[in-house]
Design goal:
By secondary structure, the protein is α/β, with parallel strands linked by helices. It folds into 3 domains: 65 residues, no CATH class; 276 residues, 3-Layer(aba) Sandwich (Aspartate Aminotransferase, domain 2); 103 residues, Aspartate Aminotransferase, domain 1. The strands form 2 sheets. A 7-stranded mixed beta sheet has the order 2-8-7-6-5-3-4, with helices on both faces. α12 links the parallel β5 and β6. α8 crosses α10. The longest helix has 22 residues. It comes from Splendidivirga corallicola. This is Aminotransferase class I/II-fold pyridoxal phosphate-dependent enzyme. Belongs to the group II decarboxylase family.
Length: 483
């Protein structure tokens, strides 16, 4: 069958999927056993005989999409995954079809140029000097920012720590990682920081925890104590990690004060802004990242609040030379003298083959424009505050922290086990999709407002259902009904 015919079949199926999700016509989640799905989709037969085209393709797509999680659904409240913009999805389609693996410029000049442009756009939002576009100016202007788009915030965080280590210990690529290195980080850091410490041979035990306040934000006065503990153990910190915002409850660390401390003590400051850096687009909320320009590096996930299809994460640096010299690589078929027509991103990432991530980011932002993307972010942050004020008025519910982003945690009065049983019931029936998290020693139900279609009414329905489940499992707390 012609390519355009099958593409039209897929487009129509996805359009119906989108419509049914936006209007809550179908459940947000249809979670069944993996063996049932494999059998239902008839995967073995297609692999053996082929034929996934035309009418069979239409049947397969309709079947497959019944098992797809609906991130645009008003009841999707689960994780920090974008309710993707349709234009971004088309950008991903273009990138997948052309397959221009543009880490080396000759393998995708258009995709590389778009990524270069989008990195500069992000740098400007941070307050860093974008890189010159003309090659001659790159050599004349030595001080400017840089960046690269990678497949996820975890890779961005790992890369940031690798280049921070190279800055402190340039000989590491020849002699290996010394045993006296450390990382300073708050207890609320993303788990990818611990993974990075393990990957780099620094080790989890070399992460020195910075004390946080009751909201989970770094206490600036506690920074010196963490540094002193590292020094007393004979360790040198390669970097200090700050959150913008934290994963569990969405709280921003005081970056201005942290940045000043790091500058005074000559410590690399890496801001994990995977989720919350998108507030830089908002005139109402960019103050939450005051001082971010003092950082040396920043992780910023476009596949979260910038509505870009996964994965698309930016690692940005204040000084491009740190990134360009931070990873040592040798490959005679790639790295050799040549006329600098464009720009090779391969020197900036641990990935070798790299898709054109900037294409889908560009398609997303270009379709809406900055102001509409900022309005979406403002709307999701405002909804979190609206839900917070509603929840704290309920006698049977509690919130640990007033939200600063689009993340809100709350719990029913009772044990951690009760929260998990409520969550498990909701997930099993597929009526709502949410997550749970531990914070300050307690288990909370966690809402992340990503879908542009979620309203306070949807949350009222959720809380009504939670109360019904609470009664079903026993020991429910008497409380007034919702109006």
């Amino acid at each position: 069958m012609p390519f355009t015919t099958d593409a039209n079949i897929i487009t129509q199926a996805l359009d119906k999927f989108r419509s049914d999700s936006n209007t809550a016509k179908s459940p947000v989640l249809n979670q069944v056993a993996i063996d049932e799905i494999i059998q239902s989709l008839d995967l073995a037969s297609y692999i053996q005989h082929g034929g996934l085209t035309d009418g069979k393709l239409a049947e397969f797509m309709n079947n497959y999409l019944t098992y797809a999680l609906r991130l645009h659904h008003p009841a999707y409240l689960g994780h920090q995954c974008a309710a993707t913009h349709e234009a971004g999805s088309l950008g991903a389609f273009v990138d997948a079809f052309t397959n221009n693996v543009m880490a080396v410029y000759e393998m995708g000049p258009g995709a590389a140029s778009i990524e270069y442009f989008m990195v500069n756009w992000l740098l400007e939002k941070v307050g860093w000097l974008p890189a010159p576009v003309k090659q001659s100016e790159r050599y004349e202007k030595r001080s400017f920012g840089g960046g690269v788009l990678v497949n996820g915030g975890s890779i961005a965080n790992l890369t940031a720590l690798i280049i921070a280590r190279s800055k402190l210990v340039p000989e590491v690529w020849e002699e290996g990682s010394p045993s006296n290195l450390s990382i300073l980080a708050p207890s609320e850091s993303h788990y990818s920081i611990q993974k990075a410490a393990g990957f780099m041979g620094i080790g989890k035990n070399a992460i020195y925890t910075i004390d946080v306040d009751q909201n989970g934000a770094i206490i600036p006065k506690a920074l010196q104590a963490a540094l002193d503990r590292s020094k007393n153990d004979g360790k040198r910190p390669i970097a200090l990690i700050a959150n913008a915002c934290s994963t569990a409850v969405g709280i921003y660390d005081p970056l201005d004060e942290i940045g000043a401390f790091c500058q005074e003590n000559n410590i690399w400051l890496h801001v994990d802004g995977a989720h919350g850096a998108s507030a830089l687009l908002s005139s109402k909320h960019k103050h939450l990242l005051k001082g971010v320009e003092k950082a040396d590096s920043l992780t910023w996930d476009a596949h979260k609040l910038l509505r870009t299809p996964s994965l698309c994460a930016a690692l940005l640096v204040r000084d491009h030379s740190d990134l360009d010299s931070g990873i040592h690589q040798e490959a005679s078929y790639l790295f050799h003298d040549k006329e600098p027509i464009g720009f090779d991103f391969i020197q900036r990432t641990i990935e070798c083959t790299k898709s054109g991530l900037g294409v889908k980011l560009f398609f997303t932002i270009a379709a809406e424009g900055e102001e509409k993307i900022a309005a979406y972010i403002d709307g999701r942050y405002a909804l979190a505050k609206e839900v917070y004020h509603f929840v704290i008025e309920q006698s049977d519910l509690e919130c640990p922290v007033a939200p600063e982003s689009n993340i809100l945690c709350f719990r029913v009065q009772g044990s951690d086990e009760k929260q998990m049983r409520i969550w498990d019931k909701l997930m099993t029936e597929g009526s709502f999709h949410l997550s749970t998290t531990m914070f300050m020693g307690k288990r909370f139900l966690r809402l992340v407002f990503m879908s542009p279609h979620t309203t306070i009414t949807d949350i009222q329905r959720l809380i009504n259902r939670i109360r019904e489940i609470n009664k079903e499992i026993g020991n429910a707390v008497e409380s007034p009904g919702l109006s």
